């Protein structure tokens, strides 16, 4: 029988491993490394993986999901993720990571070799991982854009009653 301390240490190790897998996912996208990215998703089609990129329909199946990332990587000159508000919840062999993706991206400039204009975007994301004999693998990614406030209410003058 394991002690509460052993159980706590095992749970903490699992959380660290999930955090590492989550970080590896974003780093693979930043590097444009489709092989590393592919290795992070659940293998086979026994458990259908899914992905929702901001503004896209649901993508189902490993092939469709990985093709979407290959397309994004091929058409994005630069992308960097600064993750904030990272939370990990676990139950059994499934883990849920929620976070805010503070994304900085840019494409090629119209002329010359310089990088085009950089664009910032906020996306809230949920990443679901499953534990396998090969470690924690991504089962589902869902990203939703954070809509910026217009600030129109702040600009209107208040009328005295």
UniProtKB/TrEMBL annotation:
<feature type="domain" description="SnoaL-like">
    <location>
        <begin position="18"/>
        <end position="146"/>
    </location>
</feature>
<dbReference type="InterPro" id="IPR037401">
    <property type="entry name" value="SnoaL-like"/>
</dbReference>
<feature type="compositionally biased region" description="Acidic residues">
    <location>
        <begin position="150"/>
        <end position="161"/>
    </location>
</feature>
<dbReference type="InterPro" id="IPR032710">
    <property type="entry name" value="NTF2-like_dom_sf"/>
</dbReference>
<dbReference type="Pfam" id="PF13474">
    <property type="entry name" value="SnoaL_3"/>
</dbReference>
<protein>
    <submittedName>
        <fullName>Nuclear transport factor 2 family protein</fullName>
    </submittedName>
</protein>
<feature type="region of interest" description="Disordered">
    <location>
        <begin position="142"/>
        <end position="161"/>
    </location>
</feature>
């Amino acid at each position: 029988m394991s002690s509460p301390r052993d159980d706590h240490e095992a749970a903490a190790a699992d959380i660290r491993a999930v955090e590492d897998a989550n970080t590896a996912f974003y780093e693979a996208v930043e590097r444009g490394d489709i092989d590393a990215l592919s290795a992070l998703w659940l293998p086979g089609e026994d458990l259908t993986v899914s992905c929702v990129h901001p503004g896209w329909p649901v993508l189902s199946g490993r092939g469709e999901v990985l093709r979407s990332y290959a397309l994004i990587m091929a058409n994005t000159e630069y992308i960097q993720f600064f993750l904030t508000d990272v939370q990990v919840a676990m139950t059994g062999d499934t883990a849920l990571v929620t976070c805010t993706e503070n994304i900085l991206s840019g494409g090629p400039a119209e002329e010359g070799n310089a990088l085009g204009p950089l664009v910032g975007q906020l996306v809230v994301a949920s990443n679901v991982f499953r534990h396998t004999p090969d470690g924690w693998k991504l089962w589902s990614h869902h990203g939703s854009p954070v809509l910026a406030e217009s600030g129109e209410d702040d600009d209107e003058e208040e009328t005295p009653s």
